[in-house]
Prior knowledge:
Layout: H1 6-29, H2 35-64, H3 71-98, H4 101-108, H5 111-120, H6 128-145, H7 154-176, H8 182-205, H9 209-214, H10 216-237, H11 243-250, H12 253-265, H13 271-293
Helix pairs in contact: 1-4, 1-10, 1-12, 2-8, 2-10, 3-7, 3-8, 4-7, 4-12, 5-6, 5-7, 5-11, 6-13, 8-10
Amino acid sequence: xxxxTLKSTLLLLSASLIWGFAFTAQSMGMDYxxxxxxxxxxxxxxxxxxxxxxxxxxxxxxxxxKSLGAKKDLLVAGFACGVVVCIATxxxxxxxxxxxxxxxxxxxxxxxxxxxxxxxxxxxKADGVIWAGAIIAAVGVYFLCIDENFTLNIGDIYxxxxxxxxxxxxxxxxxxxxxxxxxxxxxxxxxxxxxxSIIIGYPLEKPIISDFIAGIWPLLYAGVLSSGIAFTLQxxxxxxxxxxxxxxxxxxxxxxxxxxxxxxxxxxLSIRELVGCAIMFAAxxxxxxxxxxxxxxxxxxD
Length: 302
């Protein structure tokens, strides 16, 4: 298993903080733009922010006689990650229209359970506690999402599917990050995701210039911080972290999402929903306990 350094922990924690508050920006953005138009614009912004840095890193590497990875690997990684990011964020953006940002944050956090289960099919052994965590998480989801009439919000369903797709993305990053430059991969995946979203979204949603102007602040946060910076922090940080360990740190995104929804949108969760959040968070911690306490080589603070 990979060790995780203090630097990687801080990078991944910073990404989690930015993503948590991004739920609020994404919700606000829906007041002005459609899901695909919003995502397409934010990803192109993220790509534009990173492009000069990619060129500088390439130039510096060339001076030192170092390689940033094979071009073919970068193209394959950028396309694969871009398609997956496009699908996941579109589902998430649609889901946020119909549910609160706090609920969306916690449901998205289900990837903490899904990532190690998926790892079974990638020859990564999953402890029995993973299955216990999955059952506990399912109970938490029941309290969080299913009301007394046993109905499930359509937005919650979109976020559920989004969590599965983001789990695929985490495994893709774990596979490609050691092979290519993290910043270049981040830039290319945003270009791919942005172009797909724009090509499909602009004709369907027909946004006008005034829509982009009105939603400029949510777009800038989601594009520059959440896309351009946070995804890059993820890619660079995951170089020294097992995907299951990384997903634990990312799970704090749900806490920041609830905080952002409360502070900025005045969205409160009911007692039942708070109980569901607590149960889900307990499942998240349970899944990672063997990593923290029985596999000492998993984590390090050096």
